Amino acid sequence: MSQKKKLELDVRGMTCPSCAHHVEEALKQVEGVVDVNVPGWGSNEATVSLFSDVDEAVLINAVELAGYKASLKEQKSVSDIPQGSGNGDHRNDFDLLVIGAGSAGFAAAIKGVDLGFRVGMVGDGDLGGTCVNVGCVPSKTLIRAAEAWHNAGHHPFKGVNTQQGSLDWDIIRSEKDTLVADMRQSKYADVLAAYPEITYIEGYASFTKDGTLQVGDTIYRAHRYLIVTGGHPHMIPLPGIEDVEPLNSTTLMELEELPESLVILGGRAIALELGQTMARLGVQVLILQRSTRLVPDHEAEIGRAIKDYLEQEGIGVITGVQVDRLSREGDTRIVHARVMGQEKEFKVDQIFMALGRKANTNGMGLQNVGVELDTNGAIVVDQYQQSSNPAIYASGDVTNNPEFVYVAASGGSAAAQNALTDTQKALDLSTVPGVIFTDPQIATVGLTEAQARQQGYEAKVSTVNFEHVARAQAARDTRGFIKLVADEETNRLLGAHIIGAEAGEVIQTATLAIKFGLKIDDLTDTLFPYLTQVEGLKLAALAFDRDVALLSCCAV
Ligand SMILES: Cc1cc2nc3c(=O)[nH]c(=O)nc-3n(C[C@H](O)[C@H](O)[C@H](O)COP(=O)(O)OP(=O)(O)OC[C@H]3O[C@@H](n4cnc5c(N)ncnc54)[C@H](O)[C@@H]3O)c2cc1C
Questions:
Q1: Which of 3, 170, 410, 522 has its CA 20 to 30 A from that of 470?
Q2: Residue 512: pLDDT band by 50, 70, 90 thresholds?
Q3: Is the pLDDT of residue 6 over 50?
Q4: How far is Cα 248 from Cα 436, in angstroms, rounded to an integer?
């Protein structure tokens, strides 16, 4: 790969907002250009990152062909970037040192080298971080295995006779481990090997008192640092925790033998996904939730519905539970709690604490470099992922960003770009879809009804049960509903909240609609394929004005 450089152009003749876009597009067409930033038509500026063998005259020509005037303003090399964390030492090893080799770290490191900068990535523990090793990948494959087993026994089609096979946890677990190892190799180790420009440093990184970064015995310096160290399960230090040694999501999925009975403390995504999975694999599961409903940050109807569906499968759910302490008698573990003021004891084989995650910031010497943490230990960042130290950026689960791998990767990439170039790329968290992989799935995006009202919208809502959706009828699974929230004044879609089969697939159409400001009429005027679950979205849009039970085929 040849060297890269950065140029600033003075661009004249931009008289409207779309001019900036035209100039940007014209520059992007030039071969060898890696990145372009035209902040706006009023700025008369364009910043271009490109391979050093590209002649500036080609850029100027491209701008002129697009109908504007350009001249070279300033040429920057990477070493012109202002000095990093205030250590006063100008011997920098890297332009960017990424701390953490998970999804955010990989996205950031790749962005950094794509822009032509010297990037190092420090990784402690298994390459790839949470998602591939102990998060999304192992949990979703276990969910699928449990679902296959459950569905074989609960077939909705009367004319079909399924033969029950056998359930072998050892094999399921080892298949899960194989998948994890394969995906860690293909999505992380092989990708790292394909980017020899990224210097990988193995070990635990912490900031020293003089503002440098220490990994083992070696000191590294960089112009910019990006902290993407993720999080770990939050184990609340309840009295008795040492005796009971509760499981967390990682240790639960690694159990050599499944317990007969399991109490789960918590009632959000990880608790419900893994709770239902364990129940379907034959474990007697009881969910104890402190709030008065499951998934309390979702629409109340969704919390009630998922509770019903879980209970229908024989999973115990108790809400409004205050856990006081834990204890152990031989192999029996006991949760001592109060339910509606009454003292209760729950005796089980294992306890799974699913009470959220905490940022990995402890022991990193962040006090040495003035990085502000919130009361939960997460790094405080602005929309550009910059911390209170202007030379240090952070993103992913180590911040308060929503804990999804696609948010982590997107944030890591934006942070690297902001740290290394003059770009100010805000991480847009206004339209973050979220999926809980229970059966039925829960998927939401945008504002809930209550949030819309709090934000001053005159909110209107419509709800359509899946019994009106032809695909759900054909599949003999009409559980759940779609609830839409819209602005009465503009008719714009503000939120979509779904519980139902394939909700995770349906939500993306709603995400696009919200992100691009579509109105309810835009949805009702669009063709949706028959028979699909996403057709339910159109029915829910129609339901603002009509009784969908009275429609004939095809949501028109
Ligand atoms: C059970 C479970 C299921 C999940 N399911 C989903 C899902 O279905 N979909 C979804 O979108 N998200 C899911 N998530 C969330 C998702 O996994 C995370 O949001 C995402 O992996 C966070 O990425 P990250 O890069 O911020 O951190 P991580 O992936 O955690 O990476 C951080 C890395 O930094 C390393 N590190 C820590 N400290 C240091 C240090 N001082 N020096 C060097 N390295 C360090 C860590 O060891 C780790 O490798 C799930 C999470 C869990 C726990």
A1: 522
A2: very high
A3: yes
A4: 18
- What spacing in Å lies between the alpha carbon of 356 and ligand 1's midpoint? 13
Best mutation site among 98, 134, 136, 441 for ligand 1, i.e. most ligand atoms within 8 A of its Cβ? 136
Cα gap 298→466, rounded to integer Å: 19
Ligand 1 pocket residue status of 264, Cβ below 6 Å:
no
Q: Please give the structure tokens belonging to residue 104.
A: 């955010």
Cis peptide before 196 (omega within 30 of 0): no
Tell me, in angstroms, the distance from the centre of ligand 1 to residue 231's CA: 6
What letters, b where the CB count within 10 A reaches 16 and e where it falls short, cover 373-390? Answer: beeeebbebeebbbbebe
pLDDT digits (tens, 9 = 90+) for 364-400: 999 999 999 999 999 999 999 999 999 999 999 999 9
Instruction: Let me know: does 180 contact 133? Beta carbons within 8 Å.
Output: yes
Ligand 1 centroid–CA 135 distance in Å is 7
- Cβ of residue 201 lying under 6 Å from some atom of ligand 1: no
Half-sphere exposure in the Cβ direction for 274 (13 Å, CA): 31
* Residues found in the chain: 556
pLDDT exceeds 80 at position 327? yes
Report the amino acid identity of residue 550: L
pLDDT more than 90, % of the chain:
78
Is the CB–ligand 1 distance for residue 248 below 6 Å? no
**Encoding tokens for residue 517?**
């400001």
Answer yes or no: are the C-beta atoms of 532 and 510 closer than 8 Å.
no
The pLDDT score that the predictor gives to residue 192 is 97
Distance separating alpha carbons of residues 177 and 166, to the nearest angstrom: 20
Average pLDDT over residues 345-369: 97
Q: What's the whole-model pTM score?
A: 0.85
Distance CA 533, CA 431 (A): 21
Strands 94-99 and 119-123, by their bridges, are parallel
